[in-house]
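Bug #77: duplicate submission created two jobs. Keeping one. Sequence:
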Amino acid sequence: MEPDIYRIFQSIAPHYDRSNAVISMGMHRRWKGRMVRALSSMIPEDSHILDLCCGTGDIAQMFLRQGRSFQVTAADFSPNMLLEAERKLSKLPGERRYCLARADAMALPWKEETFDAAVISFGLRNTPDWSRVLREMVRVTKTGGIVCVMDAHYPEPIWVRRVFSLYFAWLMPVLGGGMTKRGEYQWLNQSAKAFANLSQLMDMMRQAGLTHRRYKRFLFGSCVYQLGEKAAGIYGDSEKKAERDRR
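Kept job's structure:
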């Protein structure tokens, strides 16, 4: 039986930041920061960025703190996550350069070529159709724009994988959710274990229309960000019609 992903994220939202800090031993924000800085150097000063599956707004906050004129749309399907994101982002000084949106990652509500960049961080593996989400991100990104995926993976080296398997399967759920929420974090472990590996995800990105793909691994590949540039000719008139027909 498939878990109720919506219920899981609604339930863990109030403690999500604390749990992530404990689970990653404080490293997750460093990894996210590396990705945000790399992507920021590749896009225009006044870029409009989509932070998909934004959770509590970590990535959006980091982009807004880059000292650039970025505008960020932070989107998630969980109202509780968006509430936490609003609490975090509303504390930023200066003018408001963000908006929050409740959205389905498999059917984004924005037109083609809306954003200069689209990012999904620790969210793709929890969606029902990874390829479809990537296609949607590419659709709403401008030609020449950047699509970036950051997520958790089981490391590929066997000896490292065994150690991580013990940690993710037994210790991480208790550290992240305590005794009351450990079931929710057991599911997050299962989703990481079942997720596509590095080469599979890179191939999905290619099939979605992304070129010049590259990646950066952290902690033996347990966290990876992968990014690519939207190629010219992706989602022209015929593709737009086909995409509408699929919906």
